[in-house]
Amino acid sequence: MQRGEFVMKAKWIFTIRWRLMLIMLMSLGMTALALFVGYYLTGPLLKVKLFQPPIDWLVNTYGSQVVMLVTAVLCFPYFFFVASSGLVRDLRNVDAGLQDILEGRLGEQVKVGGRDELARVADSVNQVSSQLDHNLEEMIRGLEAIAEGQFDYRIPEMDGSKIGKMVSSINRMSERLHRSIQEERNAEKTKNDLITGVSHDLRTPLTSILGFLEVIEKDRYKDETELRYYVNIAYEKSLSLRRLIDDLFEYTRINNGMPLDLRQLDIIGLIGQLNEEFVPALEAAGMESRVDFQDESRKIMADGGLLVRAYENLISNAIQYGREGRYVDIELVCEEEDVIVRITNYGEPIPERDLPYIFDRFYRVERSRSKETGGTGLGLAITKSIIELHGGKITVQSSKRFTSFETRLPCSGPLKREGTGPDKLS
Question: What does the pLDDT read at residue 371?
Fold first, then answer.
């Protein structure tokens, strides 16, 4: 017990003891006064015939001293009871206040007369009751708000108490519930967007195929040259449809937590081989690649087949949309535990408004050009999923001078970093 608490307790005991002593002295004084008054009233009472016989009998039988002593013994408890009624009333009020708190009836005020330590105890009980009532009102208000769906509502927290811990737990519960519901809504929106995107992108080429086949079926062509033209268009549209289905299947398979075939591979050798494979496409586009590798070899744990698909998408996009810049730069930087690959082109920039959505499925920066070149709107989404499946990260920067995609992969594989891996994909 600290000294301050001891002093307060000592003052409380001291005050109550002195109050009891004062009550006792008051009782003794009132008893003495009663005896004094009774002694002087005896003479007049003896002159009354009604009181003379019993008084004479008591005095002659027991003596005047015994009679006065018995009278004092009978009067003192009565006067003590009367004098202590205020203290008893205050104690009962404090007890009633504590019972109210125990039974949950908060906010009731304990009324105690005087300014002694008992009054301080009553004030403390009142403060505890008011504070608990206020805290519970805040909690009830917060829980009602949460029940009505206001998950961003925060109950004011009280530090250093169990009620404060409970309030913090309620706030965390509300936050997690809000996050879970938001994730569920996002998942539902994602599913609806996916269905809408798939339906739209499947219907467009299918409508063209059916239209040209209908022309052929009803012999509405002039000659064999026009027939072959219609057949070629239907064939190209069918290839586009198959690419979309293949990309959609692969995107779904990757995001459903497909198992990785992790092996140790040379990332520098893999990127170098891909660069060689794209030489014909670069020459056809009138472009050339510039490669900058800091090391000759760098081993990482990864699924080689999936990484090939990811970097094929990035390099082919750099060629497709960077023709005006003539060059595709491929840079590979090795840090302590990460491998950074940057693929940069110098064509038209990606508009700033499109950058936050560039990795969303079915999102096209320029829809007309993407359709003409056969894009499905899933390439970058697949690339992002593959990189994140390996525990890595992909970012993009675009300006009037260049557009650069950067991937960062951990050398130890996807299990190296907490919060990544197939089970963490969104």
Answer: 45
* pLDDT at residue 282 tops 50: yes
| Spatial contact of 301 and 411, defined as CB atoms under 8 Å apart | yes
Whether the predicted pLDDT of 421 surpasses 60: no
- What lies within 8 Å, CB to CB, of 136 at 6+ separation is 106
- Which amino acid would we find at residue 260? L
Separation between Cα atoms, residue 169 and residue 182, nearest integer Å: 20
The total number of residues written for the chain in this structure:
426
333-378 tens-digit pLDDT: 888 788 999 999 998 888 888 888 888 766 666 543 444 444 566 7
Least confident residue range of 35-44, 183-192, 380-389? 35-44
Structural domains of the chain, with CATH: 3-140 (no CATH), 262-424 (3.30.565.10)
Dist. CA 152–CA 174, nearest whole Å: 7
* Spatial contact of 122 and 97, defined as CB atoms under 8 Å apart: yes
Element containing residue 374 per DSSP (H, E): none
For 143-152, the CB contacts below 8 A with 24+ separation are 143/170, 146/170, 146/174, 146/177, 151/175, 151/177, 151/178, 151/181, 152/178
389: β partners: none
Name the maximum alpha-carbon separation found in the chain.
158
Residue 406 has pLDDT above 90, yes or no: yes
pLDDT in tens, 122-175: 666 766 766 676 677 777 777 777 777 777 777 777 666 677 777 778 878 888
Q: Which two tokens stand for residue 158?
A: 């009280």
What is the phi/psi pair of residue 288, to 5°?
-145, 155
